[in-house]
Design a protein that fits this description.
Layout lengths: L6 H5 L1 H5 L7 E4 L7 H4 L6 E5 L2 H14 L4 E4 L15 E7 L7 H7 E12 L20 H5 L4 E10 L4 E9 L2
Parallel strand pairs: 1-2, 1-4, 2-3, 4-5
Antiparallel strand pairs: 5-7, 6-7
Length: about 180
């Protein structure tokens, strides 16, 4: 699971193909780029954001090896979160297995009208299955849907999945 692209992204990749191509897609806290690297071969410009220089080096190598469009942004998303996205604009934002609540206002602002957020992370029910188990990194019931309550909800799921067992919330929402 950790190295494969998220099923949520793969199941809805067609939505991203139809977006405005002049702005990049942000792969938030991208790690080794497992999600954004699925989009790059489709000609979609992806900005890979992560704190880890090691992870971004892996992304750079994969982009270069495939001669793929993309750029990396080394950033500590949890520092200066109130302005980390200042001046940034995206056609879509991908967020998987990462939660830092103070980022959401800036993320929502950085997304262009009509743009998509595709987000999946763990809920507080995850504590039944193991890590992560810190409530600061787990969504409360209905929290993800509430964050995007005034947006068009294209997809929403909150519950448990198997292989591996995990408790998650997923959303795909279009900014008005």
């Amino acid at each position: 699971m950790a190295n494969k692209p998220a099923e949520l992204l793969l199941d809805h990749i067609g939505l991203l193909k139809s977006l405005e191509r002049s702005l990049p897609v942000l792969d938030l806290a991208c790690g080794n780029g497992r999600n954004g690297l699925v989009l790059a071969p489709l000609g979609i410009l992806v900005e890979f954001a992560d704190k880890s220089s090691e992870s971004l080096t892996v992304v750079r190598r994969r982009l270069a090896k495939g001669n793929l469009p993309g750029k990396v942004w080394q950033v500590d998303l949890e520092q200066h979160e109130d302005r980390v996205f200042s001046g940034k604009h995206y056609s879509a934002i991908l967020g998987f297995c990462y939660l830092h609540r103070p980022l959401f206002p800036g993320l929502k602002e950085a997304l262009m009208p009509g743009g998509l957020v595709i987000y999946e992370t763990f809920t507080d029910e995850q504590q039944r299955f193991g890590r992560p188990d810190n409530p600061d990194f787990l969504l409360r019931p209905g929290e993800l849907k509430t964050l995007f309550e005034n947006w068009e909800i294209v997809h929403y799921f909150e519950g448990t999945l198997e292989n591996p067992d995990r408790a998650i919330a997923q959303i795909i929402a279009r900014k008005p």
